[in-house]
Amino acid sequence: MLMVFAVGVVALIWDYNSAYRKNVEEITRKTYGKGKKTEELRVEGKDRVLGEIPIEVTEQVYGEQEISQVLKQAVKKIDSLILGENISLDHVDRDLNLLTEIPGKPIDVTWKLDRYDVINIYGKLKEDKLVSEGTPVKLTAILTYREDVEKQVLYECMAMVYPRMTGSDGALLEKVRRTVAEKDQDTRESGTLTLPKQVDGQEIHFYTVMNWRGAVIMATAVVISVLFFALDKQNEIKEKQARQKQMCLDYPEVISKLTLLLGAGMTVRKAWRKIVNDYDSRIKQQEKRAVYEEMKYTCRQMDGGVPEAECYEKFGRRCGTKEYMRFGALLSQNLRKGTKGLNDLLRLEAIQSFEERKARARRLGEEAGTKLLLPMFLMLAEVLVIVVVPAFFTVQM
Fold first, then answer.
1. pTM, 2 dp
2. Which of 74, 192, 216, 222 has the highest local Cβ count within 10 Å?
């Protein structure tokens, strides 16, 4: 009891000295978030006591530099604050904690998302909208100092949102992923990441996933090869058609020259060689013509000892059109039976070939007119737009 009494006396003396001997010049504020405090102080004048009054002291607020520093620290801290139960923003399969204020700091947070269809403004995932491949979501936050709304800072990040795994295997796989992610965070200073041998009491093995890049490249190569083969075939068909078309156009000219030379008294072989020599002399001034090249080849065959009649027949088959096959057969037959009447037959063939060329020219002209129908319809549509649109706007006015 005596000891307690002594302590009380000492406290009383201390309080007396503090209240009546110490002049209070400043009061320590509470830091932000601790609230205001009230101090009971006695006020004295020059020679008398004026009385006691409560002094209310508000909590401390930040200065300009401190506000900037606090906002920067909040931006660095917000990455970990919004994760919730997730390990990182690279794999989000649980609700995010999109807080509206920074704990212990006078900072309000306003969020904006670019994909409200998979996550709402509160960070809740919409499971029915998520896909297993993951959905990238851009998160944008504006951090505002509560005492001065003009003091703001922008925060942006990307989150890959995945559906939560279900079932026993899915739950175990999720635990494996989370365990590996936690181990990665704990061993970031190490050059390697050691994968766990067991998770949740079960033995775990990791294997490299099969890369199908080689198979894709092989399939692409096969497809490209097939396309090139088809392109070569198509070009070959086009070249063959162009060659036949050119030969059909040259047929009346060849028949006319041969008829003229035979009428001048030449044999078929000499007339044939004369036509080839004239073609060789003009080859530098004009492009190659398929029918004359085939005639040159026929000359070389005859010079090589192949029978003349057989050469003419092979010439017709190489040309591949009914006109030249008929022409080769006519020369071969008349060579065996004699050249009597050959000139008249060739003259009739020349007349018929010219008529066929005229018919072919008319047919090509009709085809060209048909091909021009589409451009004509397009031009008609343009004219209608030019005429109708101004008239329509005039009626509206």
1. 0.40
2. 74
